[in-house]
């Protein structure tokens, strides 16, 4: 008996965006990682999932009668250029799982080519990129960043030839949904307003049900997605995450982070950092992420214009007004996070923050933040010093956490090992900032909750993946244990807290392998 039951609401409600398909048979599927914690959260039995029938289900070989697997259709702006038809080229939505938290999509990656596969692609995936998504998505969840999650990674028993012979693999991903800006672009491109409205109604039902009975539900949807993305991107910036491929087909309506192909994390703080091999113009550099999120949201707003108002000019005005709220919401969420990372006092703006789908308190929020210019200056001055001194992002904030408890040696060690060939930012300059910060009486307990000890350091991830590809998963599981408990300091995890050697960072690139 299969250990799961699935609904097919997306396939039923939006057949124009759903192409029925089946996963490619696997010669001999085997579990590499089963996320038992997530399984429990979803109300699933880990032992049943690990059994033969569970592996058959997770590989897509045998599905419950309730499932209607589909490949989803969507469009997307990819590095600024519009592609009218993208879709799940090597992925399948198996269906939705009914949980106490609501519907959760169960989705395969690497399950074989679909009709949306491009350029003769085989639709298969290799083990390393699937494990990378597992590591990073679970780390993001543990860091408090909205993210899709990874239930399992399996090998298929079929080799895949990319950079030589590599193990074929499938990732089982869960998500609040896989609705994305590109889904709305696809519907809008068809010129079918009834389809666009059904898609918007489905998005509201899945993610923002409180909007259903309001006077302007579609304007509320736009505002809610803006708010969700402002929160998510601010969280990226607070943990040093670089998505690497912020195309509109990779921006969810729920606000969850999705697709971990060329992603990476900062070591040295530098807003210009790019690791993605395909981002030749630095479009999605670390510091550009808020700007590109707003650009993507503008594309989303364009798709909703027919639903916002019958008068096209009025619809454009409503969309522009909504989009103007993004920058303020992002800045507020980012600065509040930075205040926590520096152990600074709460601000009046926090009391105005939890407002979804409305900007009624925006003036109060803006006024509140304007009263905190000294603290804002403290934040921006630190980031400037970190950039000029070439300080490690995560390590510096952990060292400051110790400094808030009058342990200055970790901070001195950070400064001593910083790489600054131009001789700028003398220690005295940092000492002056430190004096200003300590005058605010930072709260170390707040900082310990806001500043992780461990993130998925790029070199640590690469080492774990190399060993896993060779059949040794011990380092993979050790890294997973560390990144899913990121705020706990343990001596046996010290190697995962160390920044990469300079030579590694200088030549490191990520690839769109997922």
Relevant terms:
514 residues; six-stranded antiparallel β-sheet; 20 helices; 12 strands; 45% helix; 13% strand; globular
Concise structural overview:
The chain is an alpha+beta fold. It has helices at residues 9-13, 36-41, 46-50, 52-58, 127-142, 181-189, 193-207, 217-239, 289-308, 312-323, 325-341, 362-370, 373-389, 393-404, 409-417, 427-438, 444-450, 458-469, 474-483, 502-507; strands spanning 18-20, 30-34, 70-72, 76-78, 81-83, 91-99, 102-109, 125-126, 149-162, 164-175, 241-242, 264-265.
Distance between the termini: 31 Å
| Secondary structure: helix percent | 40-55%
For the largest beta-sheet, the strand count, sense and barrel status come to:
6 strands, antiparallel
Backbone structural class: alpha+beta
In words, what does this structure look like?
With 514 residues, the chain is α+β, with helices and mostly antiparallel strands. The protein has helices at residues 9-13, 36-41, 46-50, 52-58, 127-142, 181-189, 193-207, 217-239, 289-308, 312-323, 325-341, 362-370, 373-389, 393-404, 409-417, 427-438, 444-450, 458-469, 474-483, 502-507; strands spanning 18-20, 30-34, 70-72, 76-78, 81-83, 91-99, 102-109, 125-126, 149-162, 164-175, 241-242, 264-265. It has 20 helices and 12 strands. Strands 2, 6, 7, 8, 9 and 10 form a 6-stranded antiparallel beta sheet that branches. Strands 1-3 form a two-stranded antiparallel sheet. Helix 6 runs parallel beside helix 9 (289-308), helix 13 runs antiparallel to helix 16 (427-438) and helix 14 (393-404) runs antiparallel to helix 17. Residues 348-371 have low confidence and may be disordered.
């Amino acid at each position: 008996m299969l250990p799961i039951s699935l609904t097919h609401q997306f396939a039923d409600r939006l057949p124009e965006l759903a192409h029925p398909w089946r996963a490619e048979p696997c010669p001999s599927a085997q579990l590499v990682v089963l996320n038992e914690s997530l399984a429990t959260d979803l109300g699933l039995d880990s032992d049943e999932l690990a059994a033969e029938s569970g592996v058959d289900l997770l590989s897509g070989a045998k599905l419950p009668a309730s499932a209607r697997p589909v490949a989803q259709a969507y469009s997307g702006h990819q590095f600024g250029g519009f592609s009218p038809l993208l879709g799940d080229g090597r992925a399948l939505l198996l269906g939705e799982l009914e949980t106490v938290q609501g519907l959760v999509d169960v989705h395969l990656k690497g399950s074989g080519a679909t009709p949306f596969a491009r350029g003769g692609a085989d639709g298969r995936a290799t083990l390393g990129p699937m494990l990378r998504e597992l590591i990073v998505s679970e780390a993001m969840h543990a860091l408090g960043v909205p993210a899709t999650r990874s239930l399992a990674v399996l090998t298929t028993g079929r080799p895949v030839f990319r950079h030589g012979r590599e193990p074929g693999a499938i990732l089982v991903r869960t998500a609040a949904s896989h609705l994305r800006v590109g889904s709305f672009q696809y519907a809008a491109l068809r010129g079918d307003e009834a389809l666009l409205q059904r898609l918007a109604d489905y998005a509201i039902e899945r993610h923002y049900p409180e909007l259903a009975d309001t006077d302007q539900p579609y304007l509320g949807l736009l505002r809610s997605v803006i708010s969700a993305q402002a929160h998510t991107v601010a969280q990226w910036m607070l943990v040093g995450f670089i998505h690497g491929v912020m195309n509109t087909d990779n921006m969810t309506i729920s606000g969850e982070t999705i697709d971990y192909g060329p992603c990476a994390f900062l070591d040295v703080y530098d807003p210009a950092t790019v690791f993605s091999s395909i981002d030749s113009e630095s479009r999605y550099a670390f510091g550009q992420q808020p700007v590109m999120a707003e650009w993507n949201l503008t594309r989303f707003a364009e798709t909703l214009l027919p639903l916002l108002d019958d008068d096209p000019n009025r619809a454009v005005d409503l969309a522009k007004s909504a989009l103007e709220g993004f920058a303020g919401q992002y800045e507020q969420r980012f600065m509040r996070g930075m205040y926590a990372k520096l152990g600074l006092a709460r601000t009046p703006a926090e009391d105005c923050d939890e407002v979804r789908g409305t900007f009624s308190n925006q003036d109060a929020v803006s006024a509140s933040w304007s009263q905190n210019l000294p603290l804002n200056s403290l934040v921006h001055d630190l980031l400037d010093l970190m950039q000029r001194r070439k300080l490690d992002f995560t390590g510096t904030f952990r060292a400051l956490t110790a400094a808030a408890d009058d342990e200055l040696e970790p901070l001195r060690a950070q400064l001593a090992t910083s790489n600054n060939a131009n001789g700028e930012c003398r220690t005295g300059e940092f000492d002056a900032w430190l004096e200003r910060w300590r005058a605010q009486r930072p709260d170390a307990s707040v900082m310990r909750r806001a500043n992780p000890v461990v993130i998925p350091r790029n070199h640590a991830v690469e080492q774990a993946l190399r060993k896993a590809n060779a059949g040794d998963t011990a380092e993979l599981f050790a890294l997973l244990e560390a990144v899913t408990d990121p705020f706990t300091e343990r001596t046996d995890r010290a190697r995962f807290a160390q920044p990469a050697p300079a030579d590694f960072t200088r030549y490191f690139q990520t690839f769109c392998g997922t």
